[in-house]
């Protein structure tokens, strides 16, 4: 039986309310805050215009999301605070996986270390469907920076790949602008959490980390600021919970066997 706890609110405010050393792994995909050299460029660009190509048929169907307009220094300071609060909630020896695009890798690796994590390496998510760039290289990859809360248990008999190739969900499966695929990516990443352990994602979005965690029998704690995406994650987690817990009628009302809460923080 898996426990799911899904909070709505600002990760910076909710993370300190989690019990110290209560999760085994933090796996998260924060707003990248990428691009935009000037303040007006950053304010003028919604996440949709940044992350979905304008000729995409799905571009106009997604809800925007908050927290993606910081400049480089603001992003570094903010992410350092968030990751520091994640460290407090993580057991010694626990793991951190943070997504980044190519532009923000230096800031994310700095933030991870400022927050007190040990940087252990960087994995690659290869996206087979990426737009070519005339005269140059296509941006066909994103990156997953790996850190640990001090030394980790290297006696565990698992050997995980350092590169993953998977496409973003399409059609009705696609619920979020920057949704990560469960199959071939998130279902591999959650293996870093010991079986039956707890995964935390403070930027849950549509819940892809949580779905992978629950489907593999791990517990999940999620935080999402947008009311819309909190609801989407709730729906996806409820479905994932039902798959696991077919005979348990409680799962018809709740995501997994856990709880779904709303904090007092403002809507983004
Ligand atoms: C890059 S998306 C995550 C997408 C997710 N990996 C998925 O597959 O659906 C980042 C999410 O963080 C949320 N967010 C932004 N700022 C936040 C904050 N301060 N606290 C909690 N969530 C936040 C956004 O609403 C957005 O849904």
What does this structure look like?
The chain has about 270 residues and is of the alpha/beta class. The protein has one domain (about 5-260): 3-Layer(aba) Sandwich (Rossmann fold). The chain is about 30% helix and about 20% strand. The chain is built from 8 helices and 9 strands. The protein has helices at about 10-15, 40-45, 45-50, 70-90, 105-115, 180-190, 210-215, 225-245; strands spanning about 5-10, 25-30, 90-100, 120-125, 140-150, 165, 200, 220-225, 260. α7 (about 210-215) links the parallel β7 and β8. α4 (about 70-90) packs across α5 (about 105-115). The longest helix has 18 residues, at about 70-90. It is globular and about 45 Å long. The two termini are about 35 Å apart. The structure holds S-adenosylmethionine. S-adenosylmethionine binds next to α1 and β8.
What are the main properties of this structure?
binds S-adenosylmethionine, 268 residues, 8 helices, Rossmann fold, alpha/beta, disordered C terminus, 9 strands
CATH class, named: Alpha Beta
Low-confidence stretches: 243-257, 263-268
Question: Major sheet: size, sense and barrel closure?
Answer: 9 strands, mixed
Counting structural domains, the number is: 1
Which descriptor suits the 3D outline? globular
Structural class computed from helices and strand pairing: alpha/beta
Distance between the termini: 33 Å
Given the structure, what is the number of helices?
A: 8
Strand order of the largest sheet: 6-4-5-3-2-7-8-1-9
**Integer-rounded radius of gyration:** 18 Å
**Element order, helices and strands?**
EHEHHHEHEEEHEHEHE
Roughly how much helix do the residues carry, as a percent range?
25-40%
Bound molecules: S-adenosylmethionine
The CATH homologous superfamily is called Vaccinia Virus protein VP39
Integer average pLDDT: 87
Per CATH, the architecture is 3-Layer(aba) Sandwich
Number of strands: 9
> How large is the share of residues in beta strands?
15-25%
The third-level CATH topology is: Rossmann fold
């Amino acid at each position: 039986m898996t426990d799911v706890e899904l909070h709505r609110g600002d990760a910076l405010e909710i993370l300190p309310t989690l019990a110290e050393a209560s999760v085994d792994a933090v796996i998260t995909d924060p707003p990248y805050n990428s691009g935009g050299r000037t303040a007006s460029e950053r304010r003028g660009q919604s996440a949709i215009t940044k992350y979905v190509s304008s000729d995409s048929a799905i571009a106009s169907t997604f809800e925007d999301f908050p927290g993606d307009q910081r400049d480089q220094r603001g992003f570094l300071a903010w992410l350092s605070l968030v990751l520091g609060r994640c460290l407090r909630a993580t057991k010694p020896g626990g793991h951190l996986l943070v997504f980044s695009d190519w532009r923000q890798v230096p800031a994310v690796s700095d933030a991870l270390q400022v927050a007190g994590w040990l940087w252990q390496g960087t994995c690659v998510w290869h996206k087979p469907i990426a737009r070519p760039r005339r005269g140059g290289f296509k941006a066909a990859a994103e990156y997953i920076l790996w850190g640990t809360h001090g030394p980790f248990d290297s006696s565990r008999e698992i050997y995980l790949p350092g590169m993953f190739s998977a496409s973003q969900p399409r059609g009705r499966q696609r619920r979020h602008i920057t949704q990560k695929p469960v199959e071939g990516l998130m279902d591999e990443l959650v293996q870093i959490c010991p079986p039956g352990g707890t995964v935390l994602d403070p930027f849950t979005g549509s819940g892809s980390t949580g779905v992978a965690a629950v489907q593999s029998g791990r517990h999940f704690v999620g935080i999402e600021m947008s009311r819309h995406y909190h609801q989407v994650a709730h729906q996806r987690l409820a479905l994932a919970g039902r798959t696991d817990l077919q005979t348990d009628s409680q799962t018809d009302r709740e995501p997994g066997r856990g709880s779904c809460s709303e904090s007092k923080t403002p809507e983004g």
